[in-house]
Each structure stands twice: as C-alpha cells, then as structure tokens.
Design goal:
- There is one protein chain.
- This protein has 8 helices and 7 strands, in the order βαβαβαβαβαβαααβ.
- The longest helix has 26 residues, at 104-129.
- The chain is globular.
- Strands 3-2-1-4-5-6-7 form a 7-stranded parallel β-sheet, with helices on both faces.
- It folds into 2 domains: 8-187 and 224-251, NAD(P)-binding Rossmann-like Domain (Rossmann fold), CATH 3.40.50; 191-222, no CATH class.
- The relative contact order is 0.14.
- It has helices at residues 17-28, 40-52, 67-81, 104-129, 152-175, 192-200, 203-216, 225-236, and strands spanning 8-11, 32-37, 56-61, 86-89, 134-139, 179-186, 247-250.
- Helices cover 49% and strands 15% of the residues.
- By secondary structure, it is α/β, with parallel strands linked by helices.
- The chain binds nicotinamide-adenine-dinucleotide.
- Nicotinamide-adenine-dinucleotide is lined by residues 12-13, 15-19, 37-39, 62-65, 90-93, 113, 139, 141, 186, 188-189, 191-194.
Length: 257
C-alpha cells in the first residue's frame, strides 16, 4: 500500500461521496491528503475518523468556485506539507431542470462550481507543481460525453471540463512540466448526488428511474464510490505515466451500447 507514499494531495468536494472515497484510497496508499469542501461539519468528521486511524489527513473549508479561496487552499496545503503532487478537482453539483425549465442563475451556478472551479484549481496546481511535476485529475462524467434531458447545465459543464483538460494537458506536456492532467468520467455512482436528485422528483418517478438505470447499465447496478476511487488512484500514480489529456470512463458499460 505505497503507491502514493509521501505524495501530497488535495481533493475537493471530499466531505462526501466520491471525493471522500478518493481521499481515503490515497491515504491508504501512503499519501498526505488535504480534504476540502464547503461542508465543514461532514469534512471535519471525516478527517477526525481518518486521523484516528493514523492517516495523514487534514480538512480545509473551501468553496471551489472562489478564486480567493483556491489561493487559500493552495497556501494551506503548501504551508502544511511543503508541496503539491496530486490535485483532484472533484467538487460538483447537478441541478435537475430541462432546457425549458432551467434558469440562467442555475446554469451559472452549475458552471461556476463544475467548470470554473476546475479551471481555477488546475491553473493554481500547475503553478505549484511545475518545478517538480504532478498529476491533476478532473472529475468529469459520462454526462460530459452524452446529453441527458434533465441535466443540460451539468452536461455542458462536464463537457467543458473534458475539453479544457485536453488543452491544459497538451500545454503542460509541451512545456515539459512533468504534469499530467486527465479526466475521470464516472457513470452512475451511489452517492448523495443521485439519492438527493431522486428525492426531488417524487417516489413514482424515482422508482421508474431506478428501474430504467438497472436495465440500461450493462453491469446492472450503480457503482460504489470506492470503484471510482480505484481509477482515481491509477491516474494519480506512476502506473498512468504515459497518460495525459485522456478520459478514463468507469461506467459499468453504460456508454458501450
Ligand atoms: N454520483 C454520480 O453518479 C456521479 C457520476 C459522474 C460524475 N460525478 C461527479 O463526481 C463528483 C462528486 O460527486 P458525488 O456523487 O460524490 O456527489 P456528492 O454530492 O456526494 O459530493 C459532492 C461534494 O461536493 C461538495 N461541494 C458542492 N459544492 C461545492 C463547492 N462549491 N466547493 C466545494 N465543495 C463543494 C459537497 O459538499 C459534497 O461534499 C462531482 O463532480 C460529480 O459531478 C458523480
């Protein structure tokens, strides 16, 4: 369990769900991890539990859509551990509203967190890593590859992340920075993002949607967060040394048919 021994990592949106699973996976491979999130209560609880196990975890309250708070989060990780080797831009939200219902404020909010946040984090991580190299993982989605009628702003933000990653990855590679940047594209994962969305659409629609997903996903179930974390571990480690500007799709076969 030493694939990330002594690597200094920052994971956003790490108080819950996929981000927390990624932070745990990294910690168990020997990394030091700053978990950041706007959810201070859940973030602090998670870090207390991880520290009790003797893992090198810390929490920083951080809104990923704020440039100023990005600077503070970067300062926090570098003050604590002296460097940054891995950034996971994981924080994200999904607003359910089709193109006719969606407001401009909802569109902007989704993009501010999911896309602006990824840009800000990537830009600041490049500045922190370019003396020694590193890995940046941008959590996009299969929803950045295909459209779904109820999440157009989410689709747009994740599609934006995917192509932004390519531009930033090519730049870093050409500059010889030793910084790799890749997209992680999960399919449907059993987290609060999905369960919260289902609660909002009512029991009947929620049951119909769950039945549809089971039938639609070839593996017949949602992913567990740890199954996405394993892919994030691959992207963070030297096992993916020849991979940059790519999409790693982990979707139970959703896009295969
Ligand atoms: N669950 C899925 O099916 C699924 C599929 C594909 C991609 N994703 C992506 O994975 C990432 C994690 O999603 P999840 O399913 O774990 O969701 P989640 O809702 O369980 O966790 C998201 C976390 O992000 C935090 N967050 C929200 N806004 C923030 C902000 N402005 N700044 C910092 N933190 C913020 C939340 O507090 C929460 O802890 C997201 O980018 C999401 O789009 C999820």
């Amino acid at each position: 369990m030493t694939r990330l021994l002594e690597k200094v990592c920052l994971v956003t949106g790490a108080a819950n769900g996929i981000g927390l699973a990624i932070a745990e996976a990294y910690l168990r491979e020997g990394a030091k991890v700053l978990l950041t999130d706007i959810d201070e209560t859940r973030g602090a609880q998670a870090v207390a539990r991880l520290q009790e196990e003797g893992l090198s975890a810390a929490f920083f309250c951080h809104d990923a859509s704020s440039e100023e708070q990005w600077q503070q989060a970067m300062d926090a990780v570098i003050e604590r551990w002296g460097r940054l080797d891995v950034l996971v831009n994981n924080a994200g939200i999904a607003i359910l509203a089709n193109v006719e219902q969606l407001t401009l404020a909802q569109w902007r909010k989704t993009n501010a967190i999911n896309l602006d946040g990824v840009f800000l984090g990537t830009q600041q991580a490049i500045a922190a890593m370019k003396g020694h190299g590193g890995s940046i993982i941008n959590v996009a989605s299969i929803e950045g590859i295909i459209g779904e009628p109820m999440v157009p702003s989410y689709n747009a933000s994740k599609g934006g992340v995917r192509i932004f990653t390519r531009a930033a990855a090519a730049h870093c590679a050409r500059q010889g920075y030793g910084i790799r940047i890749n997209n992680l594209c999960p399919g449907y994962v059993a987290t609060a993002m999905i369960s919260g969305g289902l609660q909002n659409i009512g029991d009947d629609a929620a049951q119909q949607f769950q039945a549809y997903l089971q039938q639609r996903i070839p593996l017949g179930r949602l992913a567990e967060p740890y199954e996405i974390a394993k892919a994030a571990l691959f992207l963070a480690s030297d096992d993916s040394s020849y991979m940059t500007g790519s999409d790693l799709v982990v979707d139970g076969g959703y896009l295969a048919q």
